[in-house]
Design brief:
single chain, 189 residues, alpha+beta, 4-stranded mixed sheet, elongated
């Protein structure tokens, strides 16, 4: 595990600290790596016809880091990878800026590309990082579709993302259902 940790970097960046893409690209770069695959999740300016002003992220940082490291270990178990870098911002992320960045290096492109896709999907499905979209007419706490797609599967297990026993299985309704506020012609969604 120690050697694996030397080839992974996982960082949760506090408010107003932009992601230094070059730093993470340099980390995964190596003479034996014939491929580097990346994913950069950026704040877009519209969602379902609404003008997006910014995103705001919150996290339970110690658990988020443990969960991301667990996802990295799972990726290593499935693909032949050299290095993995994952960075996620917290706080306000304006339109056009990067919220999450993943870089994966491997000898061959298939491993890097497949692992990169796996990493972002698993991070969005299992890591305790919450996103609020702020619109010109309101704001909404968003649930990732990856989480919703796997919600029933996750709810039937006694383990959380990090392999730890889940302590609270009582939530039957959507976790963000009571936190949604969008003013659309005077109505609440």
């Amino acid at each position: 595990m120690a050697a694996e940790d030397d080839k992974n970097i996982v960082e949760i960046l506090e408010d107003l600290n932009p992601i230094d893409v070059a730093k993470y690209m340099n980390f995964v770069s190596a003479p034996q790596a014939g491929a580097i695959a990346t994913f950069s999740g950026t704040t877009r300016d519209t969602f379902e016809g609404k003008t997006v002003l910014e995103l705001r992220y919150e996290a339970y940082v110690p658990m988020a880091i443990r969960c991301i490291k667990s996802v990295c270990s799972s990726a290593r178990a499935s693909w032949n990878l050299h290095s993995i870098a994952v960075a996620h911002r917290l706080g306000t992320v304006p339109v056009g800026e990067t919220s999450v960045f993943i870089a994966v290096s491997s000898v061959h492109r298939a491993d890097a590309l497949e692992a990169c896709r796996y990493l972002i999907d698993e991070i969005k499905a299992t890591v305790p990082i919450w996103k609020k979209e702020v619109y010109s007419n309101g704001e909404v706490w968003k649930e990732n579709t990856e989480f919703l797609d796997r919600r029933s599967e996750l709810g039937n297990k006694d383990v959380a993302c990090c392999g730890k026993k889940a302590e609270n299985k009582e939530h039957e309704k959507l976790c963000c259902g009571t936190k949604v506020r969008v003013d659309d012609e005077g109505s609440e969604d």
